[in-house]
Amino acid sequence: MADIKILILAIALDVSATSELESQITSHNLVISLVPYVYHASVIELAIKHKVNVVTTSYISDAIRDLDASAKKAGIVVLNEVGVDPGVDHLYAIKKIGEVHAKGGKNPLGFKFSWSPRGALLSQFNSAQFLSSGEKVEISNKELMGVAKPYFVMDGYDFVAYPNRNSLPFQEFYAIPEAETVIRGSL
After folding, report:
1. Beta strands in the chain (DSSP E)
2. 85 labelled catalytic
3. CA-CA distance, 51 to 63, in Å (whole number)?
């Protein structure tokens, strides 16, 4: 373990100071970015420029998704959504869907809570896209809470559910092509 500590360096810097950020990125072979999500695309752009791998705990934003081809061309790995939420929640979903497929079932009652208060509130400012009965549905952020619905699971488990961000890629990601409705939501 002592040898590993020599290879790891945690630093603090002002992420908006581009020249300092770039200097740090160029002097390392991996960036583990724990900055606020709005800065990840800037970090990744510099990492692409200098061919440095990046890991973040944040959702894949449109700005990050737009950098995918450049990252591949640079030959680097940009690994996102590797925290608890997002991250471990995807692993749990894949595990549960695999168990359901193995049993020939379609609709298990298996849920968990994973959230941060700030993230839960900020999610209400996002637009949403999802699949409903085979049709793509888009909801603007201004209309999002207007489509929130009561969601009854069982006695003592009454929630309000609303779609959260873009659910469309999860049909492929979770290997559920048979699903006609795919909604990544918040309760």
Report:
1. 30-33, 53-56, 78-79, 128-132, 135-139, 149-154, 157-163, 165-166, 185-186
2. yes
3. 18
DSSP-assigned beta bridge partners for residue 130 = 137
Which of 66, 85, 155, 158 is labelled catalytic? 85
Which distant-in-sequence residues (6+ apart) come within 8 Å of 68 by Cβ?
78
- Its pTM stands at 0.52
Q: With CA atoms as reference, report the closest residue to 124 among 152, 153, 146, 157.
A: 146
Quickly count: other Cβ atoms within 10 Å of residue 129's Cβ: 17
Q: Is the dihedral of CA 66, 69, 71, 77 positive or negative?
A: positive
pLDDT 10s per residue in the chain (187 long)?
455 556 677 788 898 999 999 999 999 889 988 888 889 999 999 999 999 999 988 888 889 999 999 999 999 999 887 765 555 666 667 777 777 777 776 554 554 445 556 666 677 788 899 999 999 999 998 998 888 888 776 655 567 778 888 889 888 888 888 888 888 877 7
Rounded distance, CA 172 to CA 181, Å?
12
* CA distances in angstroms from 29 to 43, 51, 73, listed in the order given: 14, 8, 17
